[in-house]
Amino acid sequence: MLSKQELLAYAKKSGIDAVGVAPAERYSDVEPQRNPLSIFPQARSIVLCAREIPRGVFRGTEEGTLWTRAGRLIEAHYMYTLARFLEDEGG
User: Fold this and answer.
1) Is residue 65 over pLDDT 90?
2) What's the structural domain count of the chain?
């Protein structure tokens, strides 16, 4: 079984800046469209990830020319890499 520390270390090494693990019960009262248990009801834990957004990404907001969502979402390859690691390690 994969430990939380192993997960955190791998995520950091993979370029994910922050990782949290929450018990699935915390999501029992969350509306279905935002609830990870809606797509995977047997989950016991929820893994949350975040990446730092460089300040320059929001420069368009200051200039009034923000036309993109670049940098607001974690790129799919980070999440894919982490998901593969979890599957390979039996997590």
Assistant:
1) no
2) 1
